[in-house]
Fold:
Amino acid sequence: MSSTSESAEKPRRVRLSREERIGQILAVSARLVSQHGFYGLSLQEVAREVGITQAGLLHYVHTKEGLLQLIIEQGYDQRFDPEDFAATGDPSAVHPDGMSFPAYCRYLVANNARDPQLIRLYMVLSAESISPAHPAHAYFDDRPDRVWELYSGTRWRIPPEVGDWSDMRPLVELAIAAMDGLQLRMFRSPSLDLPTAWRTAERVLFPSPVWDDFR
Structure:
């Protein structure tokens, strides 16, 4: 068989755009970190599963820490913020007097429940990063401030008994902490259904009758 015939039979390598390749890298590395943790992550394994060389992988992420930054910033942080909730057109999101925070929490929980691998990734990194030496330590330490700043860019409907948004930070942080705890229980045995568990948490965090007209 001629070399011409051999080359004709070889499948052509599909050339991906930068965005498509980064999407591949993100999906593979997020899965591997959720399984093995950041310290157990091998750049060589990521490159092999993506189908590129390690040098090719480093072209996109530069370092292992750069890969972690990609996972956190594009894999987890850019998801389901209040603007995304408003874009759904849900009546609780587009109310003339402002968005409902309990409704937003339900929206966040429902969407997180649909992607357990990403939640597992977040939980693994959160636990690992307790160590000050972990490259994501500062990210998780600063996260409450960033979340508060993000949420403070939205107009919320708050019961008069509660005060205004500036009084809400303790409750917001408690709600996020409760959400994190329930998400962790998703991976225990027996597992729990996150939206069902959140309905119970919501009754405690946003009790009747104070919050009944603000859900």
